[in-house]
Every structure is written in C-alpha cells, then in structure tokens.
C-alpha cells in the first residue's frame, strides 16, 4: 500500500495558513506539516543560540514562534508630529494634569505620554504616502538576525512529497518576510521537489525568476474575481504542467497589494486580445509560463484601462508552480479545487519520473497542522506532582439548584440589587435586549448570568510579563503564585483548574451555566498569546486575565421566564451547605421580588428628574478628528505596501469625573467590611453600577455586561459574540464587520445612515463592506481550523445584516467541531427531584485517558485577540496597529473578551466593544474652577472605538464610523446631552 503523501507547508505568518493546510489535507488526502519560514531550527547555529534555551517551542498558534521575535520592528513610518496615542487630558482647562504621583502611571500613556515619546528612533517625520512601489519606507523585518540555512532546509525537505510556500504580509524582496522560502528556488537539481507558491509564495517565485514585484494600482483584499485561464481549451501537448487543464470558470478571493511583473505591460493590446501572447513566457522571465490572469477594469463604466494581473505561473523546467489568488478562501469557488488536485497530480508524476522518494524515517522539524490540546500539554509537564490547595479546593463539585419564576417586570439589575446589594465585586452578564420590545428575535439574548459571593470564589489572575499567575481564595485567606512554566502558560493553568472541577454534562440542559469560570481577558493577553511582546516594564500591575471560579450563581432564562439559583458544592461539602442555606435564602428573596415595581422606579428614564443628583462634571477627551484621519491614511499606506490586508484601527476617549465608586486595589482585592460597603453603596448615586443600569436601558445589547473585579470596572453594551461552545464541542464564532448608523431624527448631518433593515442591507452589501467582513471570516476560520483540524469548519451564515438599537451590523457565523468531543458525554445522572429542584449527582469518577481532549478553552486561547478587532493577517496587523496607536498605549479591556466557561464545558464570550472601563489605580487630581481652585480626585473612564480600515476606506468615513461607535456608550452611559 502506498504511504499517505506528506506535504510541508512553509508558513509566512499569514492568518489563513490553517485554511490552506485544511484544504490540502482534505482535498489531497495527505498529511500536512507546518514550519514557520523563520523557524529557529532552520537557522544556522549562531542564530539558534538567541533562542534562549534552544528548545523548540511551538506555542501552538500555527504560525508564531515566541522565541524568535525579539527584534520585531516594523513600520518606521509615522508622523510623529501629528499622530500621538490619544487626546491628552492635559489639553483641557478643567484638568490641570497635576496628577497624583502614585496613580498617574496609566497603562495607556494618555495622561503622561509625550507626543513623540514612544516613537522608534528611526521614525521619519513624513507620511509615507508616496512610498515607492517595492522598497517603500516599510522595511518589515521580523528578525533581522535570522539566517535560514540551505543545508538544514534541504534535509527537512527530503521528508516530503511536495512543498507549499504560503501567503503572508510583506514583500518577497524583504528577506525577513519570506525567510526560508527564498532558498527554495535556489535548490540544486538533486534536491528539487515539487512546490506550489501561494500569493507571497507565488510572488517570491516570480521575483526569483527575474520578475519584478511591484504594487497593484489598488490593493485587492477580500475581493472576489474571475480567474482567466485556458482551462478546457488546453490541449494535452501544450498543456503539460498546466494545472488549469480541464478546469471550468471560477472566481477566487484575492488578498494582495503587490503583483508579479513579468513584462505583461509590453504586450500590445491587439496581441493581448488575440489571446496567445498572454500564455507565453516573456523576455523578462523566460522561465515562467503564465497560466492565469485577472483583468481588472479601471475607471468608470469599464472604459478605463485594464490592469493585467498575473494569477498563476509554472516554471519551464523545474517543478515549481504558483498562484496569486487564495485557493482556501471561503469565497473561492469549488471549481478552483481542481487546480490544487491537478497540481498534486503533476507533483506526484514529477516525483515518479525523477525517481524521487521522500525519506520516511529520521527526524523532521515541522509540526502537525493541528496544535496539541492544552490538557495534553499538562500531562506531559507535571506527572503526578504533589497536589496544592488550589488544585483540590472545590474539586469534583456537585450541583444543587432551585428554579423560581421570573416575576413580571423584574429586570436583571433588580435581581442583582436584591441578592448582591452589598457586594462590591460583581460579574453580571446581561442579555439586556431580551425583552421582545427591545430588539428583533434574531439578535435577542436568552440568558443572563449573575455571579454571586465572589469573595468565596477561587480567582486566577495573570499579568502579562509575569512568569506566574496568582491564585486566590480571599474568603479563606489563601493566595499563591503559581509558576506557569509547568502549564505552558496561563491557559494551561486555567484548563487544569477547570478540569479538576469539571462536572460531566447531563445532556440537554436548561441552563447554559451551572457554575464555573467567569471574567475577562485583555487585548494585551491576546497580543502575548500571538507572540507579540509588550513594552517592558509596563507601567501598572493590572491583571490581563481575571477569572473567578463561581460556585453560587443565578441564571435568568428570559425565554422561559424562570430564574435558576445554583450552587456547586465541593466533595463532602453537602452538610455545610444546609447550614449555609444560600440556595433557599436566595430563592426566597427572588420569590419576594414579585409584585414590586422597583425596577420601573429604578429605570433612570422614569425617575423623576428632581430626585436625581446633579450629574457630576465630566471632562471628555475624544480623539482628534484630523489625527484619526491621518492614522487611517497611515494604515492605508501599510496596506498598499503589502504589509496588511485590513487594519482595525481604534482610539480611546477618556472621561474624567469625581470619584464615584469605592476604590479597590488592582488585584486580588479583599472587599472592605460590610458596614463601610453599605455606607459607600448609599452614596453612589452615580456609581459605575448606575452607569450600567442607564446604559443597558438606552443601548440594550445581547452581550451587555457589568464587571467589577479587582481594580477593574467594565460597563459594556457589546453586541458582538466572540465565541461560544457547547458541551458537544460545537464552537461558533460570530465576527461582526460592516457598520451603518441608524437614522435618528436628530441626526441630519449628511452621514450615511439607514432607517430600515432593507436600507442597511443595500448599504452594507457592497464590495468594500463585504470584503471587510470576508477577510475576518477567513481569519476566524483559520483560528478555528488550528484547533478543530482539517475539514471541521463551516460557514453556515455569511454576511447577514442585523439590527441593533443605534446601528446595523453585518455578521457571519463560523462553526467548528472540536476533535475528540468529550468522552464523558454520558447519560445524565439522577436528574433532579420535583418542584424544579435538580440535584445532579455526577459521581466522582473522572473518566481517564482524556489527556488529548480539546475543550472550548483551546479555541479561546488560540483565537485571541478577536480577529474582528485586529484585521488580517493578525500578527503583522497587530504589530502595525501598535506603531500607529502608540507603542505604550494599551487597549486594555477594550478589544478583549468577557464571558464564562461552565463547569460542564460550555462557554460564551463577547468582544469587549461599545463599552467603558476604568481602573481603580488610574486617578487624576483636578482643579475645580467653579469651586475656586479646589483640587479634587477624578476617576478616568475610557471608551475605545474604531473600525476596519481597508484600501477602499476613506479617512472621513472611518472617522465618522469611530465617532458613531463612540457615541453609543458615551451618551448611553453619561447622558444624551454629552457633546463631543
Ligand atoms: C472596533 C469596533 O468594532 C468592531 C469593528 C466593526 C467594523 O469595522 O464594522 C464592527 C464591529 C466590531 O468588530 C468598535 O466598536 O470600536
Ligand atoms: N496574501 C499574500 O500573500 C499577500 C502578499 C503580499 N504581501 C501582497 O500584499 O501582495
């Protein structure tokens, strides 16, 4: 029997690589292995030394080598004089900037970063708008010290039947962008093997054969075009090696700014039209035979000139092929798969003819296309070590729950006030738009989840830059720093803690959450996870991951009109539970809520005006419109240079006002005594909790949330689901891209708005918006493929327009099925007594042999930061955005995620957007002009907003979009009267 063919994929840090390996695996029935273009093990020994301990570390993200990114410098373009990180608070008369020494070390540098302070020394002072075609001002170099070794590459290649050189950001003339790819074309005849170059890989082949790689007139990212080829007309004789032979017409997705120039502009128009000339090699590149083109019309009505874009080539004598389009994109038509099949048939034929047999034994460097599971990593590192308190505390829990009716008119905040009135720390995940009147059924949330008794919960916190995580049980007075090496990072620790407390699924549940982790993850944790180092030292000690293992929770089912009160009891804790009585007490408090009209009285809009406090004076610093537009242009310049396909540019607005909440320490705060809390709570007319109640009422969103955890406070009206997964391992992501403001009567400023869903659909179903969305869809497919594996990702819903309170949004649903779905999805244990009380006796025997099991956490850990907030390709785009948004600027909670992972394995996470956040350690001293120069301490709220910039964006349009997104949470929380 023939062994399964093996293909090596050289990964150039694209965000679509896993889609390509999936396509190759399923289509060619081959085993596909992945090696980054700058893998340290491909380097000469000197370079490998830099890789600290020399061990070959895959962070599992498919394309990121954490050790080898020490000198990641990009984009020296910047206009230092006009682009600073943020509007500066100092610019405002009310805020004199005399910041309190201990608290002004903000993460974001807004308060104290000078305009030029954070620019790289090499920054030049002019915009690179007129950068030359290939060697513009962007010398994107991943690692300048990297030297791939031809002999090492040769040895590695000997193991495979064929090689695919992947797409990626940058330019084929930049060594660091193509890494080892560049050496492939120089292989001696004896070492040759069949190669397919895709996009950047294709351009690298063109460049190696004498072609020039210049810029397209306008980049074509996420654009779908007809690929012109000879297909069925090709005769057997002339078509030898023509991988388009027998292929019908098809359209393909393009992702490029650069294009191969083999001299096609010199072909006379008549010869071009006549047809034969475009299939012949040209004097400039005698070795390359063109196989396909895209003919791009420019100018109105197609009357302008046609741009001849080379789409595919084969080498005249060597087994090299290349395609410029992306065969793996969700929008490349199926017919295009035949090209890949043809290529592989040609490849195998070439191997046969030349007697080449891949070496089947020996050690290859590349890894499998799918990353190993978090849990499998654990077992490898800590076999049967001594158990620590945080490993056993609350392990193997048992669920008890009561269900009570949801009294009519009672809202989520009423429940929180009744049950958690005196708690300082809170997590409330609120389907604020659950009422039928608040939204259309397709976007309505069903459940709300409230964490209670957070001081009893086990908490995991991690600050990027630390080699440990802090595990705390504050009520029990326990706290430990857990070194993360043994867990392969914070996600391994979280997976281990979850695994020890896992409750076997009971089949169809009527609650999404019975207890488990709840909390947030910052954008910076995501940057770390994809191998982007943060500037060190960071100016704060705030946690980037803060998750609490919640054992006492309340789930509101808005559809069924019931409330589940649930408690997870640790092994042997049942006795104590009866004395604690939390379950019964809480249920009776909730029952007594019925009949009360408090929620109506508490609704800010209905509260009599005179009873309201005078709103505290706000000082608002929005981004400067012209600076934002400049940043959009810089983004577009990077895109035109081939460095990115789409960049989600964002900025932050700061709002300062007198301190309203009780201030907590940044991490692991133990709440103040109850008496003090009660006093505080009473004073808090304008507390963050009130801001949340106001915002949820004005901007009812399916993923609203309120978090007060450690020193972080988040008030969110997010409409965007990041990731959900069920107990059967079905993962679903819902990237949102394409935004149009709803026409409100008071808005008459000439901005594109839509009043109805139909109008919004017309506005959003245009090439620019669809491309924006499609690019993120392909990126999200890549993230899911990296965990779920080949052939396990689908797109059930593409480019759907949805209606929210103040905007319309275009969304796509991408689904993936986890490998090795839980082996313990066993029949339900005793499923509950009468009267709505369930008492799941899940037993204590943990199934064994599940070490390789994947969970939703694997997907979460592999997919941050959310692709809809970065652009594509993710890593390079994040690096560029850091240059533009400010190297020391942290997006922080904004662009991160908030959500939960239930003890049974189900989870749901939203993207933190349309929200405001505050850190307790960020305070400013302000001179109050009205009160004769008295100094006051103000808290600082931040609202992030932005949007995806593509080559088709306009600076004004992007600026408008950013302000539209900003005004939702700003006015929603602080009042309609707030002006920018
Ligand atoms: C960047 C934001 O939103 C993101 C960008 C969107 C877009 O470009 O259309 C839409 C939703 C979000 O993924 C924001 O709200 O600040
Ligand atoms: N998708 C790609 O490989 C892009 C290649 C190159 N960076 C370009 O923009 O043209």
TrEMBL record:
Keywords: Folate biosynthesis, Glutamine amidotransferase, Transferase. Residues 60-71, 78-104 have a biased composition (Low complexity). SUPFAM superfamilies: ADC synthase (SSF56322), Class I glutamine amidotransferase-like (SSF52317). It comes from the Eukaryota. Residues 105-141 have a biased composition (Polar residues). Residues 599-608 have a biased composition (Basic and acidic residues). Pathway: Cofactor biosynthesis; tetrahydrofolate biosynthesis; 4-aminobenzoate from chorismate: step 1/2. Gene3D superfamilies: 3.40.50.880, Anthranilate synthase. Residues 156-270, 308-337 form the Glutamine amidotransferase domain. The keyword Kinase does not apply. It catalyses: chorismate + L-glutamine = 4-amino-4-deoxychorismate + L-glutamate. Residues 52-141, 593-626, 664-687 are annotated as: Disordered. NCBIfam families: PabB-fungal. This is aminodeoxychorismate synthase. It comes from Humicola insolens. The lineage of its organism: Eukaryota, Fungi, Dikarya, Ascomycota, Pezizomycotina.
